[in-house]
Design brief:
The protein is elongated and about 130 Å long. The N and C termini lie far apart (79 Å). With 247 residues, it is α+β, with helices and mostly antiparallel strands. The chain has a 5-stranded antiparallel beta sheet with strand order 4-3-7-6-5, with helices on both faces. It has a two-stranded antiparallel ribbon with strand order 1-2. The protein has a two-stranded antiparallel sheet with strand order 8-9. A hairpin with a 5-residue loop joins strand 5 and strand 6. It is built from 7 helices and 9 strands; from the N terminus they run E-E-H-E-E-H-H-E-E-E-H-E-E-H-H-H.
Length: 247
């Protein structure tokens, strides 16, 4: 306690003083004010608690690796993604062992890039779960530097993208079915945008009109009508745009 009543944290170094016979005759006490050091330690501890809380509650798998790929720390989502019961089962394992042989050479190369450039973004790989199932994942990684600015570790965020891949595959299949119907239909089909401009036609449509696709694209759909059927294309296009707006 200081003279004004405030408390201050100090570090004591106590050194015994002995005479020539080896008997203790007193002590020397060296004290140092460590208040700022303690404040820094408290701040660091709070930041670390916040950091651990964010990692623990993250929906993504987060890992801390050494420069050789050994898992030093991970959250529960890592175990979930890789199909293990708990994080204890994967601690100190090498992350590279979970990747398929097909992707392993690529992940080695990308790991070197992280060490050289400091970051890796949105790279997709396939990992092997504990039960042998293979799932697609997306990985982002950042390099951690020590107090001297030298590479010390790698933080990896790994996301299971199985559902996203299924959705992409469904869209792809839907587009293929649409394209098959579009290209093989005997009926003429035309696609126009909100302004009434032709953006696509199928072969049957070109054959029906008697014009090539390149002659039709970019033209207003009224381009194909006779003057008897469309005396004023402006009115026709205006009505079209109103219908388009009203769906």
């Amino acid at each position: 306690k200081r003279k004004d009543g405030t408390l201050v944290q100090v570090l004591f170094q106590i050194i015994p003083n002995k005479n020539s016979s080896g008997l203790l005759i007193g002590v020397t006490i060296i004290s140092r004010d460590i208040s700022e050091q303690k404040k820094t330690e408290i701040k660091l501890r709070k930041n670390e608690e916040l950091y651990r809380s964010l990692i623990a509650t993250s929906p993504d798998a987060i890992l801390l690796l050494d420069l050789n790929g050994k898992i030093l720390m991970s959250n529960k989502q890592v175990a979930v993604t890789l199909g293990f019961n708990g994080i204890e089962e994967i601690q100190l394992q090498n992350i590279f062992s979970f990747f398929t042989l097909k992707d392993r050479r690529r992940i080695f190369r990308d790991a070197r890039k992280v060490i050289e450039s400091g970051i890796l973004k949105n790279r997709e790989y396939t990992v092997i779960r504990e039960n042998g199932e293979q799932i697609p994942v997306e990985i982002n990684a950042s390099l951690i530097l020590d107090m001297f600015g030298k590479p010390d570790g790698i933080i990896v965020i790994m996301r299971d993208i199985s559902e996203r891949k299924k959705a992409e595959e469904a869209i792809k299949n839907s587009e293929l079915r649409f394209r098959s119907i579009w290209e093989n239909s005997n009926d003429g089909m035309r696609l126009t945008n909100c302004e009434g401009t032709i953006v696509a036609v199928n072969k049957a449509y070109s054959a029906l009109i008697g014009l090539n696709e390149k002659d039709l694209l970019g033209k207003p759909f009224t381009f194909i009508y006779s003057k008897e059927d469309c005396e004023d294309p402006t009115i026709e296009l205006k009505e079209y745009r109103e219908k388009f707006t009203d769906r």
